[in-house]
């Protein structure tokens, strides 16, 4: 019962924080202070910072919403963690070697997670002190490392051992691909060419457009997240940073992109599409 009441209190606090961004006069400053004093054991530092930021001088509503969104994005405990993989590092061979997978997951992805958490700590401090310049200065690091964490988490889920990769013969995914591209091979050709053509580092994506009800190919530079950049819901991502393929393919990005189609987890792609509709 106590645990349930604590969870309900947390949800009420988050609701008040969110609604106050849309209606600055609600709750009143007095009400905010009352909330903080009577539920201090329930509010983590990120939520306290979000409340403080909303009343700080020089902080615009857009800045307040952005900072609160970053701070409240952390899971229980206040920190993001490197996700476990649903398969062994060697499970994707020969398309992606165990060496590449270990480096990519345990080193590169872990670095994004570490830097994201460090940036969120700095943001929390900047918000608490009303340091507008500090908040603005952290946006690049938050976007890059937050995007890196989100993109890679989606990427690992997109993959599976070759023997488990099977495109559906019917259903919402096949219908959507047929309607937009004419068929699976045509989709691979168009998205593959766009992905290979990414200048420098970035990602190729298959996303869902909620406005049109269609799936669309897209690319994003660096670690820019698909949804925040284009409005598309990510269904399938292909990482074309060199750390994703250089050990196995050197500078032959087209060969890597061609090979990755053998290890796509189409069941996950279809689940994402069904959830997005």
The total count of helices amounts to 13
Question: What is the approximate shape?
Answer: globular
pLDDT < 50 runs, ≥5 residues: 8-51
Average residue pLDDT: 83
In sequence order, what are the helices and strands, one letter per element? HHHHHHHHHEEHEHHH
Number of strands: 3
Q: Helical content, roughly?
A: 55-70%
Ends: how far apart? Answer: 36 Å
User: Strand count, sense and closure of the main sheet?
Assistant: 3 strands, antiparallel
Question: What share of residues are in beta strands?
Answer: 5-15%
**Main structural class:** mainly alpha
Radius of gyration: 21 Å
Strand order of the largest sheet: 2-1-3
Defining key terms:
about 10% strand; mainly alpha; about 280 residues; about 60% helix; globular; three-stranded antiparallel beta sheet
What does this structure look like?
The structure is a single chain. The chain has 13 helices and three strands; from the N terminus they run αααααααααββαβααα. The chain has helices at 2-22, 29-38, 45-54, 61-72, 98-129, 132-137, 139-158, 172-181, 184-196, 226-230, 246-249, 253-260, 266-276, and strands at 202-209, 214-221, 233-239.
In brief:
The chain has 277 residues and is mostly helical.
Per-chain topology:
Elements: H1 2-22, H2 29-38, H3 45-54, H4 61-72, H5 98-129, H6 132-137, H7 139-158, H8 172-181, H9 184-196, E1 202-209, E2 214-221, H10 226-230, E3 233-239, H11 246-249, H12 253-260, H13 266-276
Antiparallel strand pairs: 1-2, 1-3
Helix pairs in contact: 1-3, 1-4, 3-4, 3-5, 5-7, 8-9, 9-12
């Amino acid at each position: 019962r106590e645990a349930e009441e604590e969870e309900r209190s947390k949800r009420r606090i988050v609701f008040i924080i969110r609604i106050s961004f849309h209606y600055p006069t609600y709750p009143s400053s007095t009400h905010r202070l009352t909330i903080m004093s009577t539920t201090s054991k329930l509010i983590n530092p990120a939520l306290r910072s979000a409340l403080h930021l909303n009343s700080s001088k020089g902080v615009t509503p857009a800045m307040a919403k952005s900072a609160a969104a970053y701070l409240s994005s952390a899971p229980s405990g206040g920190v993001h963690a490197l996700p476990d993989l649903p398969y062994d590092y060697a499970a994707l061979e020969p398309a992606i070697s165990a060496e590449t997978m270990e480096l990519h997951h345990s080193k590169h992805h872990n670095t994004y997670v570490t830097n994201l958490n460090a940036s969120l700590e700095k943001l929390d401090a900047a918000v608490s002190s009303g340091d507008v310049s500090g908040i603005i200065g952290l946006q690049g690091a938050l976007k890059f490392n937050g995007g890196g964490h989100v993109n890679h988490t989606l990427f690992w889920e997109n993959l599976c051992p070759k023997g488990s990769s099977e495109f559906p013969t019917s259903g919402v995914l096949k219908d959507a691909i047929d309607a937009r591209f004419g068929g699976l091979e045509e989709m691979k050709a168009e998205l593959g060419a766009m992905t290979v053509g990414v200048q420098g580092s970035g990602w190729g994506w298959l996303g869902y457009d909620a406005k049109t009800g269609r799936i669309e190919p897209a690319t994003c530079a660096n670690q820019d997240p698909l949804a925040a950049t284009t409005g598309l819901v990510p269904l399938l991502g292909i990482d074309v940073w060199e750390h994703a393929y250089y050990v196995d393919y050197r500078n032959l990005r087209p060969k890597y992109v061609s090979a990755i189609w053998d290890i796509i987890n189409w069941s996950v792609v279809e689940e994402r599409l069904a959830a997005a509709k």
